[in-house]
């Protein structure tokens, strides 16, 4: 029996992998199959969107918002879109934190596409992008996790830099070995949260590792499946089941919780993709019919890549002068696709129907 004590540093956190009989039960294997089926369907459906940046931008931004919300960093979708369309100095602090999450996630995605591996240094670099500081791995003992309501210590992670680095090295080896499963992602997520290697940003870094694992192992081609919205809806279970693994080695319930989340979110994301594709097609038809002189595939797609669009985006993508780009945006507003919005002295043009789809379905 595990003699775990919440107020004692968990310096003897077991190395990966766990015993196979604990993570390969019949219940887990059945849920693994259902989750694999759902994520495989999502991978295929995602390809119906010709410009993958449309999905990446829309869904990454919502994930950045949701993942940060788990840690009580709250901003609105409108503020986020305005922030990435405008000047960084105008962000409020919460919006800035969410934008940094998006940047860290994109950084990690680029890294694995370049090298097809996730190293300890990559994890440290992702956290650095997220927090915009060089604090790195915890070096000073004294970190513990406390219940906000009761003030009780609920968990004390490993405390020395040497132990933390050894545990991260073991995690990286397990993550990158040739065996793969969605169950393994659940195990990795527990282990990273238990190591708690950084002073801040551990939860968000761990959730970024989740999606990078799915891409690294070929479950997805692009980062479009995130568990943060699922965790928000089932937050008490999330923390309870993490503690159950630590205190009672109850892997089965934790793994099924994560696998069930993958299945649910994959199905929800399929619906999002279909909604976006339907709107993209109807927008193409409308612009072709009502504005044939300015229609181009690249123009319409840019309105979906950037739901808050501006002149500079069109001049860059279409290679047209500012005057022409301004005229295009005004004409698109005239037929009801865009709506002009002023941020300071700058004009931003909102893709009205896309924002409705994103708010309703994401």
Features:
three-stranded antiparallel beta sheet; Fic-like fold; 362 residues; elongated; mainly alpha; two-stranded antiparallel ribbon; 5 strands; Arc Repressor Mutant, subunit A; single chain
Describe the overall structure.
The protein has 362 residues and is mainly alpha-helical. The protein folds into two domains: 20-272, Fido-like domain (Fic-like fold, Orthogonal Bundle); 291-361, Orthogonal Bundle (Arc Repressor Mutant, subunit A), CATH 1.10.10.10. It has 16 helices and five strands. A three-stranded antiparallel beta sheet has the order 3-5-4, sandwiched between helices. The longest helix is centred in the last third of the chain and has 40 residues, at 251-290.
Radius of gyration: 22 Å
Please state the structural category: mainly alpha
- Quick check: average pLDDT? 90
Topology-level CATH name of the largest domain: Fic-like fold
Task: Count the beta strands.
Answer: 5
Shape: elongated
SS field, number of helical segments = 16
């Amino acid at each position: 029996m595990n003699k775990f004590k919440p107020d004692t540093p968990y310096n003897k956190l077991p190395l990966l992998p766990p015993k196979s009989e604990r993570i390969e039960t019949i219940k887990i294997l059945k849920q693994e199959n259902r989750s694999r089926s759902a994520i495989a369907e999502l991978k295929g459906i995602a390809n119906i969107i010709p410009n993958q940046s449309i999905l990446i931008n829309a869904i990454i931004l919502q994930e950045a918002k949701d993942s940060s919300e788990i840690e009580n960093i709250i901003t609105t979708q409108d503020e986020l879109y305005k922030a990435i369309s405008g000047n960084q100095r105008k962000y409020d602090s919460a919006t800035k934190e969410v934008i940094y999450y998006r940047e860290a996630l994109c950084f990690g995605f680029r890294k694995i596409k370049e090298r097809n591996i996730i190293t300890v240094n990559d994890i440290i670099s992702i956290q650095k992008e997220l927090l915009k500081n060089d604090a790195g791995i915890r070096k000073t003992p004294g970190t513990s996790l406390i219940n906000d309501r009761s003030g009780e210590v609920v968990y004390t992670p490993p405390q020395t830099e040497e132990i933390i680095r050894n545990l991260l090295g073991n995690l990286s080896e397990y993550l990158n070995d040739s065996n793969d499963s969605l169950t393994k992602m659940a195990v990795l997520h527990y282990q990273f949260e238990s190591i708690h290697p950084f002073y801040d940003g551990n939860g968000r870094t761990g959730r970024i590792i989740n999606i990078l694992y799915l891409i690294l192992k070929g479950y997805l081609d692009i980062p479009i499946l995130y568990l943060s919205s699922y965790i928000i809806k089932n937050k008490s279970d999330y923390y309870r089941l993490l503690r159950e693994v630590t205190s009672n080695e109850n892997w089965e319930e934790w793994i099924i919780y994560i696998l069930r989340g993958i299945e649910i979110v994959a199905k929800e994301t399929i619906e999002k993709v279909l909604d976006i594709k339907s709107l993209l097609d109807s927008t193409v038809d409308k612009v072709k019919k009502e504005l044939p002189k300015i229609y181009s595939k690249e123009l319409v797609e840019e309105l979906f890549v950037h739901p808050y669009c501006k002149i500079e985006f069109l001049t860059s993508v279409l290679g047209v002068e500012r005057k022409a780009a301004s005229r295009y945006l005004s004409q698109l507003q005239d037929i009801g696709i865009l709506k002009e919005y002023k941020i300071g002295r700058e004009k931003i043009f909102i893709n009205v129907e896309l924002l409705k789809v994103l708010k309703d379905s994401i």
